[in-house]
Amino acid sequence: MKLxxxxxxxxxxxxxxxxxxxxxxxxxxMKFDFxxxxxxxxxxxxxxxxxxxxxxxxxxxLSAMTxxxxxxxxxxxxxxxxxxxxxxxxxxxxxKFNINFLIVGILGGIGTFISGMVFLTSAALIVGLPAPxxxxxxxxxxxxxxxxxxxxxxxxxxxxxxxxxxxxxxN
Length: 171
Known about the structure:
By secondary structure, the chain is mainly α. It contains six helices and no strands.
C-alpha cells in the first residue's frame, strides 16, 4: 500500500477523531459517532483490503480512546473492525457501478447501522448496557444513521473536490 494512501486515511481518521472527541455522550454514555463518516469516506476513496484493515484497527483505537460509554473500549475496537470489513466487501462490489451520492449516503447509513449494532451487542455481552437496548437503538443508533448518511455524502463530496483541486491521486 502506498504511503500517501496511508497518510490520507490517517488524516481523515484524525479529523474524525476530533469530531468524535468533541461530541458529548448523550444516552447511557453513547454518542453520535462522526468518526464513522470519515471511515466510510476513507474506504470509498481507497477500497483496498489493506486500507480496510488499517481503517478498522485505527478507527477502533481512536474511538476507544474517546468513548464516554462505560467499558466501551473493546466494543469500539470490535465494531470498527467488523464495520470496515463489511463495508470493504460492499464497496468492492459496488465499485463496478457508478458510485453516486445516493450510494454514498446508503453506505454511510449501512456502516453506521452495522457499527451501532455490533457495538451494542458486544457491549451487552462484555460490560452490560447502562440503558435498555431498545432505548439506545431508538435514541442514538437511528438518529446517528440519519445524520451520518447525510454527513457521509457531504464529506465525501468535499474530499473529492479537494483531491481533484490538489492533483493528488488516491487509490
